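Module 6 notes. Inverse folding takes a fixed backbone as the condition and produces residue identities as the prediction. Think of it as a translation problem where the source language is geometry and the target language is the twenty amino acids. Below is one complete input and output pair. Work through it position by position during the lab.
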């Protein structure tokens, strides 16, 4: 039975761009600002890296920055500069005080108050990577992801003055905003681009570590902590070695570093694409959890913890659905469920077809996780609001059977049976900088 349920990052928003101005930001960053006390904002990604801006009507005065070049939004086959941005550091455009937020559309975000009425906002970050508190210009404030309503990994950036969105200016150069929608710009010679000058010598390199803090009971008490050797872009859990307790996996591009819950290495494998949605479950009922990836509404299941092609391919639900994995009927096999709003559609076999169980639980804005929380052999759902987990042990509508506080608001969450007692509990995923900034 599965030992993990990381909230999936579902890509749903279709973007078309109509930006015709080419920008090359190459001046040296400084500290002076502009009118109205505006700080000198610098691009919020690594020094020297090229990113492309895109926007659309109704997107508010904000810009999606990505590395796919003129191929956006056809990112799946893009070969533009930057390639896949999933897991790349997002940096503060200027110093200030950071606050973490979450919304079903925006995903994980950070807003920085720079003083004087100036704020910057960064959306679609990877769960568990966002930071809060005092930050310096160029400090990593999260990892670029595709949480919420996002198409591909990219960084949504907005800047406001006294609560009013304003045009984005990096290092004194305006980044154009386009209200209209047209076909993508296929001419690389005039495709817009921004090269980061967020390179001040006081800015440390983005040295960070991904750690998972585990609880073996339904309480706030943490019993263990496991750290990965790579930063990664997604943490999952599953019983990869079949010993009855959950292990952990950390994805960097399409490479997975595997550890036991005690931190012992289990090796690494490659599977799927870095932009795939990642899932874990026991697809062939043999007692071992393995990987699956999702593209649109198509699932590619692998029955061994090894690199290679999928063993099973199937379609279920819609591309816009949130998807979860569990053993819903206690048969020892993991299958899929999808959520639309607060309605769950549960399938008891890994075949195309209609749902076997449908019910409502929680609110559409809740973060959702899956596990065998009471150790009875079947999985069910928990929803999370802020730092409170509301757990139900049955697949029926109604109130939670119990709730409790766990972790920090901006923690990433994984679920697993860490101690092999048959019951699933929570783990908190945190990205910590090792350069003393956080």
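Target side of the pair, the amino acids:
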């Amino acid at each position: 039975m599965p030992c993990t349920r990381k909230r999936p990052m579902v890509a749903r928003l279709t973007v078309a761009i109509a930006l015709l101005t080419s920008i090359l930001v190459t001046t040296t960053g400084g500290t002076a600002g502009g009118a109205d006390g505006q700080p000198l904002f610098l691009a919020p990604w690594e020094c020297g890296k090229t990113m492309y801006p895109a926007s659309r009507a109704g997107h508010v005065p904000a810009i999606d920055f990505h590395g796919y070049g003129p191929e956006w939004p056809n990112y799946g086959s893009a070969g533009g500069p930057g390639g896949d941005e999933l897991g790349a550091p997002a940096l503060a455009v200027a110093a200030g005080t950071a606050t973490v937020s979450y919304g079903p559309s925006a995903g994980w975000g950070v807003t920085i108050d720079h003083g004087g009425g100036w704020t910057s906002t960064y959306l679609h970050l990877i769960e568990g990577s966002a930071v809060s508190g005092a930050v310096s210009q160029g400090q990593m404030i999260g990892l670029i992801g595709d949480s919420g309503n996002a198409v591909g990994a990219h960084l949504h950036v907005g800047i406001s003055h006294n609560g009013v969105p304003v045009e984005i200016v990096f290092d004194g150069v305006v980044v154009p905003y386009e209200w209209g929608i047209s076909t993508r710009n296929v001419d690389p010679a005039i495709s817009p681009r921004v090269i980061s000058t967020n390179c001040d010598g006081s800015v440390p390199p983005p040295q960070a570590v991904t750690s998972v803090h585990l609880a073996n009971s339904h309480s706030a008490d943490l019993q263990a902590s496991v750290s990965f050797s790579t930063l990664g872009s997604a943490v999952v859990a599953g019983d990869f070695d079949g010993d009855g307790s959950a292990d952990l996996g950390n994805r960097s591009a399409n490479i997975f570093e595997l550890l036991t819950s005690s931190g012992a290495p289990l090796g690494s494998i490659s599977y799927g694409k870095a932009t795939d949605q990642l899932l874990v479950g026991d697809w062939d009922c043999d007692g071992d959890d393995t990987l699956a990836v999702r593209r649109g509404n198509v699932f590619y299941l692998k029955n061994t913890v090894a690199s290679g092609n999928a063993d099973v391919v199937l379609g279920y639900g819609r591309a816009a659905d949130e998807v979860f994995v569990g053993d819903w009927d206690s048969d020892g096999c993991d299958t899929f469920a999808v959520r639309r709003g607060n309605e769950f559609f549960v399938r008891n076999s890994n075949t195309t077809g209609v749902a076997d169980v449908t019910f409502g639980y929680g609110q559409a804005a809740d973060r959702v996780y899956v596990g065998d929380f009471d150790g009875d052999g079947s999985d069910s759902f928990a929803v999370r609001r802020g730092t409170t987990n509301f757990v139900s042990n049955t697949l029926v509508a109604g109130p939670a059977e119990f709730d409790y506080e766990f972790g920090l608001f901006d923690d990433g969450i994984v679920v697993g049976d860490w101690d092999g007692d048959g019951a699933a509990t929570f783990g908190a995923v945190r990205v910590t900088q090792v350069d003393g900034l956080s």
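Reference fact for the lab report: Residues 208-433 form a domain with the Tachylectin-2; Chain A fold (CATH 2.115.10).
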